[in-house]
Amino acid sequence: MLSLTRQFLALNVTGKFTLQRFYSHLLNHSNSIGLKPRNGISPLPVVLSQNLFWERDRKGGYGDKNKPPVSRKQMLLDGLRELRKEFAMFEQEWREKLACDPLVVFRPGETDVVFNFESQPDLDRWVVTSDRDHGEGFSEANFELSPAGFGLFHGKLESRAPKDGRIKKAGYANIRSQRIRKSFKRDAFFEWEQYNTLVLKVRGDGRTYLINLASEGYYDILWNDVYHYVLYTRGGPHWQTARIPFSKFFLSSKGRVQDSQAPIPLNRISNIGFSVGSRGGHDGQFRLEFDYIGVEYDPSHTEEFAYEMYKQQKYIVGT
Asked: pLDDT tens across 64-74, in order?
């Protein structure tokens, strides 16, 4: 216990103990639950382990903090409007379920389009973010219809970080599809178990983009599970069709590649996104144009997972 206390606490000039870095909120919490200091030393809170391992926010603090408060009357009016939309969505779900024919939906070798980019409502299904939106940089990004009538993700990347002592690296932009859901705010997932390939028809600028397939789990430790793979663009005026097997995607969480890898759960995909960064001195304009995003079953592709996991016994130590 003494070594743990020394690890988290530091003695300052006035003789009081304070928590280093971001652990200062734990001491404030200890006072709020009734733990009184003894001999001028603030005790560690009883719920230390819960605060370290439990997450309250699914977005990790990147939510809309500037959203104005809404009155109860306005909430009631908005709820009544939403109720009408939810019943219409519920009716559409049953129509599709009764008219659906699995033999017609699934055909090997043909691409089933998931996302089109032909009109503004198609683009409204996507969310655009950059480091500027969170006060962490100066990059800009937009997602709009191009003059040719396709979805255009473009902007400017700047690796210059704000001089606030908090951010060390900057320069990124991202688009992400909105979470699909059923009627009455029920969460839903893309059902891609019968497919094995992601198909994209894009026109890029020669940059490298990162494809993100979010697989949000039930528990908080799985909220940020994302599967990645790299999209290489050729640049120039010509379109390219990229076919990427799902077996090539690797798992990460909060931007860190995980040591324990596993195949992507194709029945738990909640949304898809694309990221671009200025790492390596690649500041400047970027441009990625979308025609469609779809999935396909390729009978010739039999690989289940591209990455082998080497597990040694616990008593074996590598040197």
From this structure: 656 678 888 88
